[in-house]
Description:
CATH architecture of the largest domain: Up-down Bundle
Shape: elongated
Order of helices and strands: HHHEEHHHHHHHH
Number of helices: 11
Largest sheet: 2 strands, antiparallel
Helix content: over 70%
Strand order of the largest sheet: 1-2
Structural class: mainly alpha
CATH superfamily of the largest domain: GntR ligand-binding domain-like
CATH class of the largest domain: Mainly Alpha
Radius of gyration: 22 Å
Number of strands: 2
Number of domains: 2
Strand content: under 5%
Amino acid sequence: MTSTSPLLTGRSAHVLQSLRQMLESASYQPGSKLPPERELATALTASRRVLRQALDILEQEGRLERVPGRGTVVLAPRMPLHSLESLTQHTSPIELMDARFVLEPAIAAAAAVHASSHDLDTLAHCFEQTKQVRSHAEWEQWDSALHKALGLATHNKLLVHFYDVLTQARAQTEWGRLRRHVLTPEIRARYTEQHSRILNAVRERSPEEAAQAMREHLSLVRRTLQEQLEATAPIIRSEEE
């Protein structure tokens, strides 16, 4: 995005445009920091007030985050909403599982290292709720909340963003239809046991065990998903004929 904000004119608009160009350069990758405001204002020949107006807009757009004690941190550009919706709506269940295998073991490992006591309490609460659900909808709600809490426990905004994309893909129609057929009481009981192993590893601060427990969980999810796909394939072919 390179257009200036309609709220800014003159010098303010020029400063905002200069900051956008800085963020598009190779020198400012996600996770890097901008120079202190005083240095930045001098480099851009702008007042601190004008500079802060431009920084406020970039922060609202999700390009920057001002963190006390760390300074102004560069964030990854947000995917446009229409592009994200298109991506998740056209993602197959197998593509989703492949992506989960890449990302979620790493998330579990990072959570084991970085989870706070509040994170652990939230994970425990979500886990307890999955054991008390009475419907498929309630299971989906708390299962998703549990995995989301693992992502938040990494305290890594990029990982949380990527997991949000996976969560939206999980909500797509084809995935939900398959899950309803797959999630028998027996399968849910096995998922619950695996969730317990994942959370115990996170609580014990063991990233290797957390990652391995997540891989085993996803292996079962993938296996049951593939079995359901194979079971429904003849029906689909028959309807097409």
